[in-house]
Amino acid sequence: MGGIMKTDLFKGDRNSNLELLRIIAMILIVISHYSVHGSIKSIDLGFGLNKVILDISNFGNLGVALFVMISGYFLVTKPFKLDRIIRVVLDTLFYSVAFFVIFSILNHEFSVVSMIRAIFPIVPMQYWFVTTYVFMMMLSPFLNRFLKGLTEYEFKVYILVMLLIVSISSMIPKFDAFSYSGFLGQFFLYYSLGAFIKIHPKSCNKIKNPKCYLLISLVLLLLLIMSGVVIDLLSNYFSVFVGEYSFFFGRGSILVIAIAYALFKYFTNIKPYENKFINIVSSCTFGVYLIHDNNYMREYLWGNIFDNSKYAESNYLIVHFILSVIIVYVACTVIEYIRKYVLEKYVFKNIINRINSCADSMYGKLLSLIEKR
After folding, report:
1. Its pTM surpasses 0.85
2. CB-based burial of residue 173 (10 Å sphere; 0-12 exposed, 13-18 middle, 19+ buried)?
3. 334 to each of 20, 77, 281, 327, 341, how far by Cα in Å?
C-alpha cells in the first residue's frame, strides 16, 4: 500500500528516500509512546532533566503527520483500490485477535465484550490512527478528485484555510471543528499537503539546495523542543502551565505541521535511490505500530517488560529510554516480517486474494449502479 504498507515485501521499485522517512516517522511514534504510555506521570516530577526528557519526547504527532503526508503523496494520482483498505483492516484484525487470545490465556480472563471489540477493531477505535485512516481512505477517491481539480492557487488557498481551521480548533479546549474528535480533519490536511507536493512539486521551491529544508526542519524542531522546556520551567512558578508541556506538540500545531512539511520537502528533493534493506524495514512499519500500541500489549510492554516508572527519577532514564525504543522497534519489525513473509505470503495469501476479489467485484457493481443513476 502506498500510504502505509507494501503488498510485495521484496519488490524493489520504491524510492528509498520516502521509505526511510516512513521508518523515521514510526521511530518518532515509538519514542512518544515511551513517555505517553509508559506509566510515568511526568506531571508528578519536579523540574529537572528527567521531566524535560519525558515531556519533549512527545514526537508521535509529528510521526503521524509524516505518515499521512506520505499517503497523500503516493495515492493522490493513483486509482482507488478497495484492497488497500482491506489489507489495513485484515492486518489490524490479525493483531487485535492475536493479542486478545494471548492475553486472555495469560491473564486467565475472558470477556465477550472484549472479544467483540477484538473482532471488530475498527469500529470501537481500538487503534485511533487505523480507524481515522480507514475513514480517510474511504473518502480518498472524492478527495483526490477534488484536489486534482484545483488550480495551484486554489490549492494553496484551500490548504491555508484548512491549516487555519485545524490549528485554531486544536488550540481551543474541547472544541471539535470536525467529526470524530477532529482526527479526520487533521488527516485531510496532512493528506492534502502530501498531495500538493506531488501535484505541484516545483511550487514554493525557491530553495535550490535540499539541505536547506533539512536545516529548516531542525531549527523548527529545536523551537518545538524549547517550547516544552520553557513551559515546564514556567509550570514551576505558575499553575496555569502545569501539564501544558505538549501544547505545541499537538496534531494541529503549526510547528509540527511545518516540521513535517520541511522534512517531506527535503526527502522528496534529494536524489532518489533504492535500498532493499530500507524498503523491507519500511514495509514492516505498520506492523510495528499495530504490535506495540495494541491495548493489551501497550500496558504490558511499558509497565511490565520495561517497567518505565522504575526509571522516572533514575540517572539512567535516558539510557533506558534509548535502549527500550531500539528493542521495541527491532523486535516488532522482526515479528511483522515473519507475519508478512510466512503467514501472509504462504498461509493467508489465497484467503486475502479471494477477499480482495469479492470486495473489488462488489465495489465495481456499486459504482455501476451509481453511474446508471
Report:
1. yes
2. exposed
3. 17, 32, 9, 11, 10
